[in-house]
Design brief:
Chain lengths: 538, 337, 576, 297
């Protein structure tokens, strides 16, 4: 004890005695430091336009903060954290939205200006939405999720009025307009920089912001830092308090933690669970942890190949997963379990929800024997190395546990770059992954992950006529507002999925954000990235 | 002299051609599918194919290679898929960061290892000799990333003597105007002492990491060649002529002993460039090494090829420099060249 | 021979310049402490020239290093004292020793090229010494250095001042080393084998220079050498050492006339000199036991074994330009870039004949022997061996042909020519295994037979080279060469690396083997005294050409070529 | 390789091995650091052989109740995130790391050593081609080349070994070439030719055994480098497959925990790794002393 005390003192002494090192900010810098937010994260954007080819998730964050959409979401309070409200919209570039039976009309804010000073017109809005449904790849795909597929759906009524015509009744259409993708772009500016080969000016927006958003990128060194400055003429909401955002990429998690603990960084995004738990108990920082909306970490099985084409085998595996060990040792308790519901608990009209599976080696063995594998078999479990911090210990635990029922598993690490390729091939027998949808509706999740039309996220190649019927039913019922049918269908698809068990839900992961105590204003968004506009540094 | 250099450069051409071919084949052998990667998370098969065509990856390998070489002759290293910028631009902007770090590490290492090696040789068999050997060897026995993390832990996290490991400058100091790209030099030239100090304080830990790693080979070589030279007849003659210890060791022994040390420097540099990759990752250094690693892991061909080619050219130039230096030290080589 | 009376020598009365008393030097080795020098007493008067003579391991060099206090770190003075002008050098602090070295006592070493810093201009090296001992100020030091170079008879000293050692010949380097040693006009010069490795003509010039310079300055000199003849020719007094002990100290006139110690006598006898036979080299008792030399005349009418005609070997001059041209193979190498190491020589060797090939280093004698051995290819000419032109067979292929058996070689350096990882038996067996059809079972017996033949005790057969002495290694090399009963053996300076007493035995052995097996010898050597003893005929080479050839007797006594006369004149003649 | 000749009947070989042994003992006494290195090497070799049989816990068995425990009597080196016993893992990892080191050295010796000897001995085109290949490899930043190879071929132990071997190829070529070149004109090689040995026999039976001692030095240095290389690859995610215990990957995984206070996760495997590399490096120096004829007084 005494020795500890001494060490602490010595350290403190050393810290204060240290020469006015660079970590001590001199007074000239202090003011700018106060108005600047220093954010550190593991990786940075590769493209600052969400419409770009292969823009990564950090790139979405830039887009979110530097561009406006017509509408956005209101906030509600969930366990003390501001959390976006799925069902309540607020105006951003639009000052008014009028949703009709088969169309929606938007009035634009008259004083809205792009960052170069040109006013935002309905023409820009149409060009932007045309762009998002036309460039292909992810943006077009996301728009189609809300049945927004053709430029003809977007109509300029007058300079300040814009209309979206619905292709069909779809309750996801309006929420889709509030996602990151349909951002409003300065069409004249981009067209000036477009070429014949690149009619949408993707090359220009890859490096430059051309929006009306609250921030603009003033410097971007890929893999190193992004510097954003406030757009003082922003009309999309209350003017942000923070004048400047410095986003530094620090690949080493340990260093990020050190930066936070020493007070050199203001915010660290995506902290490992372990650090989160420890920092929380240390109490020096304010820390927010929120479960992914509509997201699940799961173990998938390829149902087209033996032995996983046998539902009994899949159930056996589900009984052999060391759920609680994963919760404790891998996640440090920081996740919402998707297992172990009481045997008599009714199925809910919600997603994600817990399965009734628990770790039960005896039952797993019995099921395996029934399936004709009394001595187990050999297989390979794959995971994305980009998320090795969670995936690796998780797979090791799974491997160990499956060995108890005779299933010999070898672990295959796949570098992040290849992960998608491998996933798309749909040949991996056993793997773990996360899926989460921006639009927080059960049927939205199921269309992607369980429907027999076999989207790329149905990584198990699961085909079930029963399940498809429930999913299609739920989509139609939602569009028609038939609540009873909707609820029955949702329950039906969940029950089918849990009985067939092509993928074993493990838990809902948490987004962890750590901030200095003087930083407030964090909000949880469906895209899970940071919204700089509400941050306040005291 | 110039013709000698010209001839020398001619002989390295096969090496560079070899590097270009090997790199090309190696990057094509990487398992990732850049088209799938860049098509985004939800792209259809058609979209992936479309991107493949736009990247030219649907063509047979020889055709891709010819295209690559053609671009190369025009000084075009291609575009990085992940950052979307021309590789040439990226390398030009990142190379100084890596070069500044590696060179400082190497200089630091030589400043310590060479005297250490001399001391060990002069006091051969003494406890000083053994200590030098153990210390230098211990340095090279630790993985560089581990050394780097330990240094950060001790000097930044615990003691707070060193600035945050977030790159070449802390977030609130602005970079000096770009003359050479070496912040130390640029800030000195413009007389910006604050930036100079900030740069230096950011450089110290990563440079020390590299230095620790390269102590052993330099010290070992210095010791060995000093021992050989100290046992030589001309040193005995110098001693027998009553020259004082300093003259014997510096003017007579050391200058001769430097010859093999200078030749190993090229090799040490090559090793350091490799180690640099890991150090840059630990210290969030915006250098060329971390750039190449990221690109390699993303199967982003162009930056990897550009990086390797740049390093090969650098290596060749460095060896040329070493040869010239060798000629300066050793009159025998000068005459033959 | 050049000895002038030296009146200033006053042995015994005045204080000696150097007084070594009871000196014992020890070396720490892995086998414990070894005494390299045991209770040695030597005195040297002012102006006196003293020779220390002994074979390798006698402690003669160690004694001089102890005087200079430049023993390496394993060695130390265990006992005794060294007084220099009355000053106890053993007790002197290192700084004082440093002051003395170079200023009061200097040393010159064997292999002059290695003794100079290879990357420093020789002028600067001399300046280093001058400045160290404050002989001259900074401004005039260059002039002084040039003056010193002039004194050692270096032509164009102003240019040579800027030269590097590699730009100078061996003899020239030794002059620079002497200049270095004498720059500060010391009282004592220790010359440690100063002429070993130099050609006889150069050797003489260097020795004469040393004697002249030291005489005119009234310096004392210690000459350390293995060559009794050299010592006797240049020294006032000779100290003979054996195994760390001084066995005899005498004035040089008396030492040849009346050697007191048995070892001195043995050394003296073993030194080749005119007017003796091979057997006279051996100690008296052994010589008596040896059988008389056969005197088989060579049959003149018999066809010669080896006929060499117009043999030429050219080398391209080394340089980057040629190697690049060679790499691309386009332009032929121009004429002037070619160096002719052997320039059209012709000679014959008869069956049973022993021919000497003599010349100074670089004369082409080694290249010739390598071509005859078919280790390298000739450029042109023929080598007819037993009527067949073996010169036409590429060297690469020759190794495995049956003709290989007929020509063998004994190498200059017995250590270098034995594979360090083969035992003596394995080395002797190697040619038998490769080129004869001897059965495995008979191999050992054959090796033992050969060992007996060359006088190698059988217990040495299973030793590795580093466990054998020089003489034993030489015997292994000879046994290997005769294993296949060749017709011709080329002896490439087979005794150059051996002590004289061992040389005497080996030379006799070679003679006996030749008589016994009826082989022919081509004896390559620089030592005319040795050639005289062993060869029937002698060929003298210079710059790639044969300048003279004929019966040994005739060439030695009535040389026709001026070059031969120079060679003969340069041999040091002990005062017998 | 060397033809064994059955002509040694008596106690002579014993004499020679004795002298090697006594020389080794002398070197060790003369240089305590080398003695230490030889001792540590023996320890590492023993652990590689018997490690898996003496460890107190199954190195793969998780025990989440005991996760992240500091060193104690029950767990000498503490436990990792999954509650596995770090002491057991460190000990068991010795074998794999030793195998990686040895295998890559053998591979590179066969490739680089022989290529280098041939280049040095034959000269000419053989030399030109081998040297060009070595130069080309050398012009790569070596670690990046190793990374590229492992990334392209897949991250298995075999590929890590291959990558390490390729990266070290130029060093072996250099050393072997220089040594063979020096001996090309040596007396004993000429003598071997006179004895009727062809080129290849001279290469294998005469030159190779003579340069082995110097190659041994290179070999021991490479062994250390192989382990470091594997650790570096682990750090960027290209190491061996989990849950196989391997020092490099344990350090890489534990490195993230240093700042949060669980120093033992990285420290112990790091120390083991360092000791092993350290031993191999010092062994190189020791072997050099052992084979250096100048030291054979």
């Amino acid at each position: 004890m005494k020795r500890r005390e001494f060490l602490k003192k010595a350290t403190a002494l050393a810290a204060t005695a240290a020469v006015p090192g660079p970590s001590v900010i001199n007074s000239a810098k202090a003011q700018s430091r106060k108005e600047t937010l220093l954010i550190v994260s593991e990786s940075g954007p590769n493209n600052i336009d969400i419409h770009g080819v292969g823009t990564n998730v950090p790139g979405y964050e830039v887009s979110w903060n530097c561009y406006d959409r017509l509408i956005s979401h209101e906030m509600k309070d969930v366990n003390g954290t501001p959390y976006y409200d799925r069902d309540k919209f607020k105006m951003e570039l639009a000052e008014d939205m009028n949703v009709g039976d088969m169309s929606a009309t938007f009035k634009l804010k008259k004083n809205a200006k792009f960052q170069d000073g040109t006013p935002v017109t309905a023409k820009d809005v149409k060009w932007s939405l045309d762009r998002s449904v036309s460039v292909g790849g992810f943006p077009t795909f996301q728009m189609s999720a809300g049945s927004l597929t053709k430029p003809e759906q977007f109509v300029v009524v007058d300079d300040n009025t814009f209309r979206i015509d619905f292709a069909r009744k779809d309750r996801l259409t309006i929420p889709d307009v509030a996602t990151i993708v349909p951002c409003i772009i300065n069409s004249e500016l981009v067209k000036k920089n477009a070429t014949e080969k690149d009619p949408w000016g993707l090359e220009y927006t890859k490096q430059n912001t051309a929006g009306s958003g609250a921030y603009k990128v003033t410097s971007w060194v890929p893999g190193t830092e992004v510097i954003m400055e406030r757009n003082d003429a922003w009309v999309g909401g209350k003017l942000p308090e923070t004048k400047k955002i410095i986003w530094r990429i620090v690949p080493s998690a340990g260093n990020r933690r050190a930066l936070l603990e020493r007070g050199d960084a203001d915010i660290s995004y995506d902290l490992p669970n372990k650090d989160f738990v420890e920092l929380k108990s240390a109490g020096k920082l304010s820390i927010v942890s929120t479960p992914y909306s509509n997201g699940v970490q799961y173990i998938g099985m390829n149902v087209t190949q033996p032995p996983f084409n046998n539902p009994k085998v899949r159930q056996a595996v589900a009984y052999a997963i060391p759920y609680q060990k994963i919760m404790d040792a891998v996640l440090f308790g920081l996740a919402k379990p998707s297992f172990g519901a009481a045997p008599d608990a009714p199925t809910q009209v919600a997603w994600p929800q817990a399965t009734k599976y628990n770790t039960d080696i005896a039952k797993a063995k019995a099921l395996l024997a029934e399936a004709g594998f009394p001595n187990g078999f050999e297989t390979t479990i794959s995971f994305d190395l980009g998320f090795a911090g969670v995936n690796e210990p998780l797979c090791v635990l799974v491997q160990e546990s499956l060995a108890q029922v005779g299933i010999k598993v070898s672990i295959n690490k796949i570098p992040g770059a290849n992960w998608r390729t491998e996933l798309n091939k749909k040949t991996m027998p056993l793997y773990t992954n996360v899926f989460s949808g921006w639009l927080d509706y059960p049927e939205y999740f199921f269309i992607w992950c369980y429907h027999g039309k076999n989207s790329i996220f149905n990584t198990m190649s699961y085909q079930s006529a029963t399940c498809d019927a429930f999913i299609d039913g739920a989509v139609t019922a939602a569009a028609n507002g038939d609540k009873a049918k909707y609820e029955a269908d949702v329950k039906g698809m969940v029950d089918t999925a849990f009985a067939d068990m092509p993928r074993i839900p493990l838990y809902q992961p948490y987004v962890n954000v750590a901030m200095q105590k003087n930083v407030t204003g964090y909000q949880y968004w469906f895209h899970r990235r940071l919204d700089y506009r509400t941050f306040v540094k005291g | 002299m110039l013709t000698t250099i010209g001839k020398r450069l001619l002989t390295v051409l096969p090496t560079l051609i070899g590097v270009i071919i090997v790199t090309f084949l190696l990057t094509r052998a990487l398992p990732g599918d850049p088209a799938a990667y860049f098509a985004g998370p939800a792209a259809s098969k058609e979209a992936v194919e479309q991107i493949r065509v736009s990247l030219g990856l649907d063509k047979p390998l020889p055709e891709q290679f010819i295209r690559y070489v053609k671009d190369l002759t025009q000084g075009n290293l291609g575009n990085s898929l992940s950052t979307g910028r021309p590789v040439t631009t990226e390398i030009v902007s990142r190379l100084p960061a890596s070069a500044e770090l590696t060179l400082l590490g190497l200089i630091l290492s030589m400043m310590i290892a060479v005297p250490l090696g001399i001391l060990a040789a002069v006091k051969q068999g003494s406890w000083i000799d053994h200590t030098c050997r153990v210390v230098a060897t211990a340095g090279v026995s630790l993985p560089v990333f581990f050394t780097g993390l330990l240094l950060v832990y001790v000097f930044y996290y615990i003691l707070g003597w060193s600035p945050a490991p977030i790159g070449r400058l802390d977030a609130f100091t602005s970079a000096p105007p770009n003359y050479t790209g070496f912040y130390l030099i640029d800030s000195l030239v413009t007389g910006n002492w604050e930036t100079f100090r900030a740069t230096l304080s950011q450089l110290i830990l990563p440079a020390a990491t590299l230095c620790i790693f390269s102590l052993a080979p330099i010290a070992r070589m210095t010791r060995a060649s000093m021992l050989a030279v100290l046992a030589s007849e001309f040193v005995r003659t110098a001693r027998a002529s009553g020259l004082d210890g300093r003259t014997v060791i510096i003017t007579y022994a050391f200058r001769n002993a430097m010859l093999p040390v200078v030749t190993t420097l090229g090799m040490v540099f090559s090793f350091l460039l490799g180690a640099n990759v890991l150090v840059e990752k630990v210290f969030a250094w915006p250098g060329i090494g971390s750039y190449a690693v990221e690109a390699l892991l993303q199967s982003d061909f162009a930056p990897v090829q550009g990086f390797v080619l740049t390093m090969a050219v650098l290596y060749v130039l460095l060896n040329l420099l070493i040869d010239i230096l060798y000629g300066v030290i050793d009159p025998r080589v000068r005459l033959e060249g | 021979m050049l000895k002038a009376p030296t009146p200033e020598v006053d042995v015994g009365t005045a204080l000696p310049l150097l007084d070594i008393r009871n000196l014992t030097v020890e070396f720490a080795t892995r086998r414990g402490t070894v005494q390299a020098v045991k209770k040695v007493n030597i005195t040297l008067a002012k102006g006196e020239t003293l020779g220390i003579v002994g074979e390798s391991g006698s402690g003669k060099s160690v004694t001089s290093y102890a005087v200079m206090r430049i023993l390496d770190r394993a060695g130390s003075i265990a006992e005794g004292s060294v007084l220099f002008s009355g000053l106890d050098l053993r007790a002197a602090p290192e700084s004082e020793m440093r002051d003395l070295r170079g200023r009061e006592m200097s040393m010159i070493f064997q292999s002059p090229r290695l003794a100079l810093n290879p990357i420093r201009k020789i002028g600067h090296q001399i300046e280093d010494v001058l400045l160290q001992h404050a002989q001259v100020g900074n401004e005039s030091v260059a002039d002084k250095a040039i003056e010193v170079l002039e004194q050692v008879r270096i032509a164009r000293p102003k240019e040579r001042y800027h030269a590097y050692p590699f730009e100078l010949s061996g003899g020239m380097c030794q002059r620079v080393v002497i200049a270095l040693a004498l720059a500060c006009r010391p009282q004592l010069l220790i010359a440690d084998e100063p002429t070993t490795g130099l050609d006889v003509t150069t050797q003489k010039a260097v020795m004469d220079l040393v004697v002249e310079l030291t005489r005119e300055r009234g310096m004392s000199t210690i000459l350390i050498t293995h060559d009794l003849g050299l010592a006797a020719a240049y020294c006032d007094k000779v100290v003979v050492m054996e195994k760390g002990l001084v066995v005899e100290t005498s004035p040089s006139e008396t030492i040849f006339k009346a050697p007191a110690h048995a070892y001195t006598r043995k050394l003296m006898r073993a030194t080749p000199r005119p007017g003796i036979t091979l057997r006279d080299l051996l100690p008296e008792d052994e010589a008596a036991r040896a059988r008389p030399l056969a005197n088989k005349p060579v049959l003149a009418d018999e066809a010669p074994l080896l006929v060499v005609e117009n043999l030429v070997k050219e080398y391209p001059r080394k340089g980057v330009s040629t190697s690049i041209k060679k790499m691309f193979g386009t332009t032929p190498v121009p004429e002037n870039e070619v160096f002719r190491a052997v320039d059209g020589i012709s000679f014959t060797i008869g069956r049973g004949e022993s021919v000497g090939l003599v010349g100074e280093s670089g004369c082409g004698k080694s290249t010739t022997s390598m071509m005859l051995m078919r280790l390298i290819d000739k450029t042109s000419g023929t080598i007819a061996f037993g009527g067949e032109d073996i010169g036409a067979i590429p060297a690469r292929n020759f190794a495995t042909l049956p003709q290989r058996k007929k020509i063998q070689m004994v190498f200059q350096d017995p250590t270098d020519s034995l594979n360090p990882r083969f035992t003596a038996a394995r080395a002797i067996a190697d040619p038998l295994l490769r080129l004869s059809d001897i059965s495995r079972g008979a191999l050992r017996a054959k090796c033992e037979e050969l060992a007996t033949q060359v006088g190698l005790p059988l217990q040495f057969l299973d030793r590795f080279p580093h466990q054998l002495s020089g003489g034993q290694k030489a015997r292994v090399g000879i046994a290997r060469a005769i294993a296949l009963k060749p017709d011709l053996i080329i002896l490439d300076e087979p005794t150059a690396a051996l002590d004289v007493s061992v040389q005497a035995v080996v030379l006799n052995l070679l003679q006996d083997l030749k008589d016994e097996l009826g082989m022919s010898y081509l004896f390559v050597s620089h030592d005319l005294n040795v050639v005289r003893l062993l060869c029937d005929r002698v060929i003298v080479m210079n710059t790639g050409r044969i300048v003279e050839q004929g019966p040994t007797q005739r060439v030695m006594e009535a040389p026709e070529a001026a070059y031969t006369r120079d060679l003969l004149a340069a041999i040091p003649h002990p005062p017998v | 390789m060397t033809e064994t000749v059955t002509i040694a009947p008596v106690a002579a070989p014993k004499h020679s091995s004795n002298s090697v042994l006594s020389h080794a003992l002398y070197i060790m006494k003369d240089n305590p650091v080398t003695g230490l290195a030889f001792g540590l090497f023996a320890l590492i070799a023993l652990l590689a052989l018997f490690g898996p049989y003496i460890v107190p816990y199954d190195p793969l068995a998780s025990n989440t109740a005991q996760a992240l425990k500091a060193p104690s009597m029950a767990h000498w080196f503490g436990t990792d995130q999954l509650g596995r016993d770090i002491f057991s893992r460190v000990i068991v990892a010795t074998r794999l790391d030793f195998i990686i080191a040895i295998a890559s050295v053998i591979l590179v010796f066969i490739m680089g050593g022989f290529a280098g000897i041939a280049a040095g001995f034959f000269g000419g085109w053989t030399d030109r081609i081998v040297s060009r290949i070595a130069d080309t490899i050398m012009a790569f930043p070596l670690f990046v080349l190793a990374m590229g190879i492992v990334a392209a071929l897949g991250n298995t132990v075999t590929n890590i070994v291959i990558a390490t071997a390729i990266v070290n190829f130029p060093l072996y070529v250099r050393v072997a070439r220089a040594e063979a070149n020096v001996r090309r004109e040596a007396g004993f090689v000429q003598a071997a030719r006179l004895s009727g040995n062809g080129d290849y026999r001279i290469l294998l039976a005469h030159i190779l055994p003579n340069i082995m001692p110097i190659m041994m030095v290179q070999i021991s240095l490479t062994m250390g480098y192989a382990i470091l290389n594997a650790a570096g690859l682990s750090f960027i995610g290209l190491g061996v497959k989990p849950p196989t215990p391997e020092w490099g990957i344990m350090v890489a995984e534990g490195a993230a925990n240093i700042i949060s206070g669980e120093w033992w996760i990285a420290l112990f495997p790091g120390a083991a790794l360092m000791i092993a590399v350290f031993t191999f490096n010092l062994l190189g120096d020791g072997l050099r002393d052992l084979v250096d004829p100048q030291r054979r007084t």
